Amino acid sequence: MSSSKQQASLPFIGSLLQGERNAITDVAGVTVGHRTLADGPVQTGVTVIRPHAGDLFRDKVPAAVAVLNGFGKSVGLLQVEELGVLETPIALTNTFSVGAVAAAQIRRCLADNPECGRTLPTVNPLVFECNDGFLNDIQRMAVSEADYLHALAGATSDFEQGSVGAGRGMSSFQLKGGIGSASRRVSAREGLCHTVGALVLANYGRQPQLLLAGHAVGERLAALQAERSLPAVNEAEKGSIIIVVATDAPLDARQLRRLALRAGAGLARTGSVFGHGSGDIVLAFSTAYTVPDSVERPMPAVAMLHDGLLDGLFQAAADSTEQAIIHALWRATAVTGRDGNHRASLADVLPASTLFSNHA
């Protein structure tokens, strides 16, 4: 099935308009890059999100974190929560590669800022993870500094989704998961329009609970498996999801945390209950202004969006997150990895015409 036919057959979430690409990169300046490792038992990778093309250590962006369920091994969240800024690109990878990617971020910052850790403060690397150990031989710790740099250098506004980058080895609802993205446009008031984009690393969910656009797809999958005399899939929740929300609206860290929390509404609509074994973390950032690294440089004079105008952004965060998860599931391709473990894609198991045949 062609990508255009896939897109046409999928449901559109909500009533807001999408951006040009229907991706996080509809927020001006944001780019995404991948490095995919697909070699037998090694099925993993790294994905990098750049809020802007400059040096984030020098020109930080406001950000906030919302931890829906803290079963995870990410690094850098504590300082983001305290200071409310990002000072490296955002990296996504597998659990055992967090250290290698964090070291790569530090070394890149040192190359660009030789006084970092001496006359300048140390840098706060920011790496999120999900456990791809079902498909990937995670013990090999295959992701390297070179892989991070490759993803960073290749970041662009048009990027692949599905079984790529950090999403290569991820599973979702006992199907193939991975990278998905979407965006929505919001008119806060007349003459004032903003974009909200989401990118997800989907590696969560119990198949019987799967909902797509309000349809109980998990129940259909169970019925289909019974018809084919296949064993029912009812594994415990032990995955994770990382959600990154970007906006060009001028928000401070407090408001961005509120925005991040609303991504949880979109996640819940897909059937997630933020289970015990699932690490569900949201990072939100704004590209409307930057915060200088040095006290010698002037702070930006920015008029923040009034709290009373946030509801449209909240809706956009929820809708773009839900849409991004649908894109991750649908655009993922089947993968066979470690010990012959296999995850079929949703598109292979159920065609979109069957999934959403009753959807208007």
TrEMBL record:
EC code: 3.4.11.19
Keyword Hydrolase on entry: yes
Enzyme class per UniProt: hydrolase
Keyword line: Aminopeptidase, Hydrolase, Protease
Source organism superkingdom: Bacteria
InterPro entries in the cross-refs: ArgJ-like_dom_sf (IPR016117), Peptidase_S58_DmpA (IPR005321)
One matching Pfam family: Peptidase_S58
Family matches, as CDD domains: DmpA (cd02253)
Molecular function terms, GO-annotated: aminopeptidase activity
Similarity remark: Belongs to the peptidase S58 family.
Protein name: D-aminopeptidase
